[in-house]
Amino acid sequence: MPLAVWLILAAGLLPLVALLPGKWSREFDNSNPRDPQYWADPFRARALSAHKNSLEAFPLFAIAVIVGLWQGGDPEWINRLCGLFISMRVLYILCYLLDKAPLRSLTWSVGFIATIAIFTTPVWS
Fold first, then answer.
1. Are 116 and 82 within 8 A, CB to CB?
2. Suppose 3 and one of 56, 75, 79, 114 were both cysteines; which one would form an S-S bond, judging by CB atoms 3.0 to 4.6 Å apart?
3. Main subcellular localization, coarse class (predicted)?
């Protein structure tokens, strides 16, 4: 199975990874996990936002990988671009948690461009 397909799984797990730091507290009440007061703390709010954005980024990435491979894109290029996407998403989550907005926007943009490149690999590779 191509590395790119395994990286779809990794991308699917990133939303959970993004949310974990926000739950590392004894105050977290699993009986009421969506308590707005709990998530109002700035750090927890950023963790929740990183989680939501990771969920939003996943479908396009997964579809791009499937289309790129299915339509005959170069698997080596697709693997590299998938690695770039995952790297950017991890950095994006870290930037969100550390409140580094300009760098966060840059990592989001590079990840988005990587996704478009994955989708279009059959055209140019």
1. no
2. 79
3. membrane
Residue 84, amino acid: L
Residue 52: what are its φ and ψ, rounded to 5°?
-65, -40
Count each helix (H run) and each strand (E run) in the chain, helices first: 4, 0
DSSP state of 35: -
Is residue 29 included in any domain, yes or no? Answer: no
End-to-end CA distance of the chain: 20
Residue 31 forms part of a structural domain:
no
Report the candidate in 67, 50, 69, 27 with the shortest Cα–Cα distance to residue 111: 50
Q: pLDDT-derived band of residue 26, with 50, 70 and 90 as boundaries?
A: confident
Using an 8 Å Cβ cutoff, are 58 and 66 in contact?
no
Cβ contacts of residue 124 below 8 Å, gap of 6+?
A: none
> Is 28 part of any domain?
no
Residue 64 lies in a domain: yes
Q: How many angstroms separate the CA atoms of 43 and 27, rounded? A: 14
Encoded tokens for 73: 């894109």
